[in-house]
Amino acid sequence: MSAPDPALLSVNTATVRKQWGLAQAIAGCARHGIRGISPWRDQLREMGIEAAAHAIRGHDLTVSGLCRGGLFPAADAAGRYAAIEENLGAINEAHALGARCLVLVAGGLPKESKDIAGAREQVREGIAAILPHARNAGVPLAIEPLHPMYAADRSCINTLAQALDLCDAVDPHNQGGLGVAVDVYHVWWDPQLAAQIRRAGSARLLAFHICDWLVPTRDLLNDRGMMGDGVIDLPRIRSWVEQAGYTGFHEVEIFSELDWWQRDPDEVLQTCKERHQKFC
Amino acid sequence: MSAPDPALLSVNTATVRKQWGLAQAIAGCARHGIRGISPWRDQLREMGIEAAAHAIRGHDLTVSGLCRGGLFPAADAAGRYAAIEENLGAINEAHALGARCLVLVAGGLPKESKDIAGAREQVREGIAAILPHARNAGVPLAIEPLHPMYAADRSCINTLAQALDLCDAVDPHNQGGLGVAVDVYHVWWDPQLAAQIRRAGSARLLAFHICDWLVPTRDLLNDRGMMGDGVIDLPRIRSWVEQAGYTGFHEVEIFSELDWWQRDPDEVLQTCKERHQKFC
Questions:
Q1: Cα–Cα distance between A43 and B37 in angstroms, integer?
Q2: Sheet containing B205-210, strands listed edge to edge, beginning at the edge strand earlier in sequence
Q3: Helix, strand, or coil here: A213?
Q4: Which of the ends of chain A has fewer CB neighbours closer than 10 A, N or C?
Q5: Which letter does DSSP use for residue A3 in this model?
Q6: Minimal Cα–Cα distance from A234 to chain B, Å?
Q7: Is A71 in contact with A107 (CB distance < 8 Å)?
Q8: Is the ipTM of this complex over 0.85?
Q9: Angle, helices A160-170/A116-137, rounded to nearest 10 degrees
Q10: Closest chain B residue to A114 measured between Cα atoms?
Q11: E strands within chain B?
């Protein structure tokens, strides 16, 4: 398989979040010739949405996705309402940035709850509630299935099949504006992965996130690997998303307390570029 | 839902392995009126298989399963052959103990490999190779799907659907002696769980393992919770296995470096009994 187009590389700012604020990350991506960026909402608030949009436009970067909306399940109706309001605000921010999508991390079990089926139903209701506003704003919603080890506390949507079932339930006629974000870290193990990527097709494939799965993994949350340092067959998975018609960014998202967050962020970005060419 | 039959409680000796050797665990279960036990092969070797079988029979305990066979994938043919030989030995030990099943943990990726589909194929070949001997010995083989967070290094069989597909591939006419071990820790998050337990039915449901998923989970391997301390809806899952026709043991298997392995093992067994009645 030939190396990927370097112009498709995007960097999720979480990859250097311990070293850089958003303004530095924007300038850093531009300096390294990285064309895509994916900021987080807390960083946007800190920098100011207008300043961020201005800087991103000024450097001619594309926002491959805004992190993040979702987190729908709540213990009561007031909590569910607040989550929907929060998501409407996130859609507005994504619109202001011209983001390719708003990434949705579903949310886990409400406090004290053991009802995962109920939480999943709340996610469906939440997405249905915000989809009209997202369509009006021209912001596609990308449901990101998270690894099953996050089912309790971060996302009760845990496989690509389940995320696509959810898309089909909320948007049965595939009217657009709703799809999935495929992050290799969350789905690489799934025996159904190839088939579900095919099923998603270009209409539902809104984002493609890359990193690697380390052996051993020392922490459930913040021990992701740089591409090439783990066991994920990245070229194979890229071939599947490309065969399904995906032509968008390859977004690097690495949470790494012990390694990449300890390094010079310019070295991190340089390594992202090299590893993208060599191992993806 | 009514409380489970206390006579169905079994304890996997890993639950007290830091405190007790196998002889102590056997005596401990008997002393607490626990009728089932599930030993590990390393402990069997230490105690001696004949002594262990004698002690287990002497206390009139039932071996709900022997831990463990499997670990099939290897980097070369010699490694795969050695794994099969090892499994034939495990079948003989399970036979000597009158075990209800031999639990199979598939194994992960061979060293340096990123080919998870290939590893899965090796697991299929390994199980097919040992099934005739298992049938002759009257030892059912229970494929235990492991949580996807163990896909790289412990088991490339990660969902109940996948384990059942594997059963169907190796034993297409359901001739017996091959099925699955359902451990709630590994499968509780799966949106297909109820449907796949139904699909398994009594013919394929060979073991049912219980514990709980803690929030937060501090370690990928050794931070399992006691029943009632986490987020798993145990009575609901038990209702599914019972509706599918399962009438066997409820085996407690808890790896817990920070909590239960630090406690008095008699307290641990007493707690297993109480929690089994109260939360399962």
A1: 53
A2: B62-63, B36-38, B9-12, B250-252, B205-210, B178-183, B141-143, B102-105, B66-70
A3: coil
A4: N
A5: P
A6: 9
A7: yes
A8: yes
A9: 60
A10: B231
A11: 9-12, 36-38, 62-63, 66-70, 102-105, 141-143, 178-183, 205-210, 250-252
List the end-to-end C-alpha distance of chain B, in Å, as a whole number: 9
pLDDT tens, per residue, chain A with 280 residues: 799 999 999 999 999 999 999 999 999 999 999 999 999 999 999 999 999 999 999 999 999 999 999 999 999 999 999 999 999 999 999 999 999 999 999 999 999 999 999 999 999 999 999 999 999 999 999 999 999 999 999 999 999 999 999 999 999 999 999 999 999 999 999 999 999 999 999 999 999 999 999 999 999 999 999 999 999 999 999 999 999 999 999 999 999 999 999 999 999 999 999 999 999 9
Nearest CB to A189: which of B148, B213, B217? B148
Retrieve residue A8's tokens: 């498709």
Q: How far is CA A191 from the centre of its chain?
A: 21
Closest by CA to B248, choosing from B182, B198, B193, B196, is B182
Of A114, A156, A231, the CB nearest to B114: A231
Amino acid type, B15: T
Nearest CA in chain A to B153: A215
